Amino acid sequence: MNTIDQNILRALTADGRLSNAELAEKVGLSPSACWTRVKRLEQSGVIRGYHAELDQAKLGMPDTVFIEVMMEKHDEEIRQRFENVVLSIPEVLECHLVTGEYDYVIKAAVGGTAGYEALLREHLYRLPGVRHTRSFFTLRCLKQRHSPEP
What we know:
single chain; alpha+beta
């Protein structure tokens, strides 16, 4: 990957809806050369997809909560069931299997403490194997990126 590829990635990270002509102009390439590079970046898996960024507050879920989850034991069947359920919960934005005292960290969008309580009671606390959770709400997001800067 060279400087031009990195410039393409920066431009698409800032605005994934750029037309090929606009992108080519920004990075100083002809449209056909730019298209070829973007296709190569997609095929190699560097660009995994394009997404719409939604406004949580306008969807009725203005608050972000991080939930650390400790499992009772590390049984494969329980782990798989937990992960399958978490993947199906619409409020869950991210879920990471982590090292340390807790087993998972979940990032969720909720509608205040009522939405948070519903997430816990209707989903997480119903799962066998969940031993303990610890949570914290964000006050403000200072920086949010969807991928590292190239």
